[in-house]
Design goal:
The chain is α+β, with helices and mostly antiparallel strands and 186 residues long. The chain has a single domain, classed as Chitinase A, domain 3 (Roll). It contains 4 helices and 7 strands. Strands 1, 2, 3, 4, 5, 6 and 7 form a 7-stranded antiparallel β-sheet that branches. The protein is globular. It comes from Algoriphagus aquaeductus.
Amino acid sequence: MNFRLFAFAALLIGSVSMYSCIDPDQTQEVLLQRDKEAIEKYLQENSIASVKEYQEPIEGFYMFWQVSTQQERNALLRGDTVRVNYTGRLLNNKIFDTSLEQVARDNNIFNSARNYQPLRFPVGYGLTISGFEFAISMMHPGEKATVIFPSRLGYGNQANGEIPANSPLIFELELLEVKKGPNLNP
């Protein structure tokens, strides 16, 4: 009996010691590299039509505008409220969420208890995942774009409903409206 207890304690201590030697930054770097490779493979296998593009390959962030107003940059400021239609997908093209009822019905994710309407949120308060908010910050009202980004700009190592942990994400976005916030932005 003492031998089993001793063996279990040694195994437990060894596991903890080995785990403590793992550098969390290195783990994040490994995950980012894996995500970037998966995103690059997706982009090679799936053509995304665009009239304008933005890429940050080092970060694994890609954005493709299907409709661009070609206006000068009118930056969103913290507190500005946006209204956005969106469809979220995984790299296997499985749709996990949308603000559009017909898209939900067509992809068997319709929920009759949900009110399908554009997402409305104030920018700069962390109410959405960072990759989503960053993409919106690069858009003007009336624009449509597809954005792809690594898991660290999404839900990271946390699973969220149909989204597995450490999943790169794709969003199709349509920025419908920007209402200037309490900062009294011009």
